[in-house]
Amino acid sequence: SITGETVELLEPYLDMEDYNLETAKKVCGNVAGLCSWTQAMAYFYGINKEVLPLKANLALQEGRLAAAQTELNNAQIQLDEKQMELDQVQAMYDSAMKEKQALLDDAEACRKKMNNATALIEGLGGEKLRWTASSKNFQNQIVNLVGNVLLATGFLSYSGPFNQEYRNLLLQLWKKEMDNSKIPYSNDLNLTGMLVDNATVGEWNLQGLPNDDLSIQNGIIVTKASRYPLLIDPQGQGKIWIKNKEKNNGLQVNSSFSIFYMCVI
């Protein structure tokens, strides 16, 4: 309730030299407290005059702070919600990128497979002609199989005692008879290739058999014919070959009058 007018009225007294607590105590101890109180109230008024605007401003700023804090809290809530949405979108993005990379890898794998398939198809396309020719050749072999087998069995049964010239002559005579009887056979028939493979021939050569056609034919007759072979072998090549070939099969060798009769048992 102190006003500025009251303080102005008190100022002349407050400015007096003897208006203080010590002097008042000398006059009256009870009044001394009132003197000190009036000084304090005047001082309080001066201080409070400056403090009131500050308090008002403080209340205003506290109100603004509360409003700002409320806005901050609301903004924080929105930020948390947006962060959650961002996390969800980021997870979706990461999943989409992972799926995209997987699709890219699959596409690259498919591209490689397509390239390989294209190369294979192109390669197989080049084989089509060969397969067609092979198929036609197989059909011809089926048709000519009876005659070819007949020539092979005749060669094994009757060609053993003769040299290369007479063997060829026998084949020509047999082919002539087969033509008359309309028995089909292959004109380019290779009896050696029909009766033995190259790997076996190579093994025979390693065992000591010469590599000429007559020796290979003799080897075929020895190994394929059902009867025991008789080898007239002045150079000893046949003996060396048979001994090497049958050394693990219990070969027995009998010699008489310098003529070697060798039989595989």
UniProtKB/TrEMBL annotation:
Residues 58-117 form a coiled coil. One of its GO terms (biological process) is microtubule-based movement. One of its GO terms (molecular function) is dynein intermediate chain binding. Residues 6-174 form the Dynein heavy chain coiled coil stalk domain. Keywords: Coiled coil. It comes from the Eukaryota. InterPro entries: AAA_9, DHC, Dynein_HC_stalk, P-loop_NTPase. GO terms for cellular component: axonemal dynein complex. Residues 203-255 form the Dynein heavy chain ATP-binding dynein motor region domain. PANTHER family: CYTOPLASMIC DYNEIN 1 HEAVY CHAIN 1 (PTHR46532:SF13), MALE FERTILITY FACTOR KL5 (PTHR46532). This is DYH5 protein.
